[in-house]
Amino acid sequence: MFNFRTYVAQLVTVPRPDFKLFRTLLPSWDATARQQDAGTVFVGSSPELFQYWLEHALEQTRLRHRGDERLIFINAWNEWGEGCHLEPDKRYGRAWLEAIRHARAVPRPIAPKRPAWADLVARAKVDDRAPMTRIIRSAVAADASRAAPRVSVVMPAYNHERFVQAALDSVVAQSLAELEIIAVDDGSQDATGALLDGFAETCTTHAVTIVHQPNAGAHAAINRGLARARGEFVAIINSDDRYAPARLATMLDALRDRRADFAFSNTRFVDGEGVELANDNAYVSQLRDGIARGLAAADPLPALLRANVAISTGNFVFRRSLLEKTGGMCAFRVCHDWDFILAASYFTPIAFVRERLYDYRLHRANTFSGQLLIAHLESDQVIDRFFARIEAHPVMREPGSRDRFLDEVRRRGLTSFLPGVRAL
C-alpha cells in the first residue's frame, strides 16, 4: 500500500532526466480485486489530487516540449478492475473528467521579468524615504569624504539570528580590507535586525550600512543592497553562510587572470554547527556531483545547464558594471540565482575558482525548505528563458564552440528548449 499524495509529490519533483520524457499519470489504482493479498494499492487518491498532478504535468510539458510533442499520457483505459478510470462512476460522477477540464483551464504561470538596473536604482532611492524603511550606518559609512571601496559585500538577511554574526565576522576577517558591508534585513521576526544594528554601531574598521525593509523576498533584499553598492566589484553573502579568509582576494585575482566579470568558487557544505557534511547526505552528494562536473570542464556553462553549480547568490562575485547589462535579480522565489548567472553568461566568461572558499550552511531554517516544487517549475522557466535568445549567446559565435555546445544540449535532453535552433 502506497500513499498516493506522496507518490504524486515524488513525481512532480523528480529531476529533469538527460533524455526526452513524456509524463504519464493515473487517476487511482487498487489491484486487490484481481490479485487479492498480492495486489498494489495507492491510498488517498481523489479527483482533486489528480487535477493538482495534471496541472503541474501540463505546465512542465508546455515548457519542455514543442508542437506535436506536447503529449501527456493517462493510464486509465480498460482498468476498471483496478479502479483506474476517467469515465463517470457512482462515487465521483464526472469528477475525473472535470478534473482534466479544470487543469487545462488553469492560467499559465508567467515567469517574472528581470528588472532593468536603472529602474531598480531609482526605486531604491524612493524606498529609502518610505516610512517602513530604517537605515543604520557605522561611523565609517557616515563619513562622506571616504573614497569608494574596491568591493561592496551585500548581505540579504532574514531570521538568521543564530548565524548572522558569524557571517559578518567572516567578511570583516577578509585579507582584502578595501570593502564595505551592506546588509538588508528583509523583515526578520527574530533578533537578526537588532544584531545587524549592533554590528553597525560598534564596527570601527569598515563602512557598514544596515537597511531594514518589510519582507519582500530574497531577490528584493539583494536588489536593495546592490542599488546601494559603491564598489567596483560586488560580492554577495547569505546571512547564514561564511567566507574563507582569502575569498575576496582570490576571487578578484581570478576575475583579472581570466578576463571575466563574474566568478564563483567551489563550496564547502556545513551543518548548523559549522561542521562539514559527509557524502552520506544524499542532497549534499548530489550538489557535489554537479560541482565536480563543472570543475572537470573548461567552461562551467554546460554544467550550469543541468543545475546551479554555484549553489547560491552568496557565492557570486562580479563587476558592478555588469548589472547595467543583466539587470537585477528577478522575482523568482527560489531560482533567482540560477537565472542571474545564466543571464551573466551572455555578457562575460564565467570564472569557476577551484578552491572551496564559500561555506554553505544546510540547516532546518534554510529559506528554501519546503519550496522544492516551486524550484522545479522555476528551473524549467529559467532554462526556457536562457534558450530564448540562444543564437545571440557568445557560445554560438564560433563553429567549434557552437557544435560542442549543441552536442552538450543533446546529451542533456534539452533540444526541445531550442525553438530557434534547427541545425540539430
Give structural attributes.
single chain; 424 residues; alpha/beta; Spore Coat Polysaccharide Biosynthesis Protein SpsA, Chain A; 9-stranded mixed sheet; two-stranded parallel ribbon; 15 helices; globular
Short description:
The chain is an alpha/beta fold and 424 residues long. The protein has helices spanning 4-12, 32-35, 47-64, 95-105, 117-127, 164-172, 192-202, 218-228, 247-257, 282-296, 301-306, 323-326, 336-344, 372-388, 399-411; strands at 2-3, 24-25, 42-43, 73-74, 134-137, 151-157, 179-186, 207-213, 233-236, 242-243, 262-270, 317-319, 350-361.
Explain this structure to me?
The protein is of the alpha/beta class and 424 residues long. The protein has 2 domains: 2-105, no CATH class; 117-388, Spore Coat Polysaccharide Biosynthesis Protein SpsA, Chain A, CATH 3.90.550.10. The chain is built from 15 helices and 13 strands. It has helices at residues 4-12, 32-35, 47-64, 95-105, 117-127, 164-172, 192-202, 218-228, 247-257, 282-296, 301-306, 323-326, 336-344, 372-388, 399-411; strands at residues 2-3, 24-25, 42-43, 73-74, 134-137, 151-157, 179-186, 207-213, 233-236, 242-243, 262-270, 317-319, 350-361. It is globular. The model has no long low-confidence stretch (mean pLDDT 92).
